[in-house]
Amino acid sequence: MRRPEGTRQRPAELYVDCVVLTSFVAEFTFLRNVLGLMGIRMHHAGSLEEADFLLTVTGSRVLLADIVFADGTCYDALGMIGDRHPLVAGLVAADPPDRTFLQAVFSSGALGILWKPLEFGLVRKSIRIAHEASTDREVLMEELGVCGVKGAL
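RESULT FIELD:
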C-alpha cells in the first residue's frame, strides 16, 4: 500500500523480496550479491515446491523463474503462482534461442522476460516494477471488494 505523503520510509520498505526459481545456484548467488546492494532481497528456490513455500513465508510479490529448472518449466511456475499466489508477478529469465518456446508466456501470466546475459540495472528495475504492479493490484482489488485478496500473498 502507498504511504501518506510526508511520512518517512522505514528501512525495511526500501527492500523488495524476490523468489528466484533456478537450478543454477552459482548464477543465483552472483545475482543475489549484486542485487542485494541495490535493495533487492533474493531467495533461492530449486523446485516448484520450494518456490511456493518461499513465496508464502517471505511475502515476496515477485517470482523470477528460469525457462527450465529441476522439476518443470516457466509455464509450470506461472501456473503455480496463478493458482496459489494470484497477486505475485511472474518474470522469466531466458536465453535468446529460447524465443520460440516462450510464444505463450505472456498469455500464461508472465509480466515480462529478462534476456540473458542479464543486465543488472534492467533486472533491478523489472523486479521493482513487478513488485509495484503486484502491490497496486492488491490495493485495487481490496477497493473493489474482491473476495479472498487480503493475505493472498
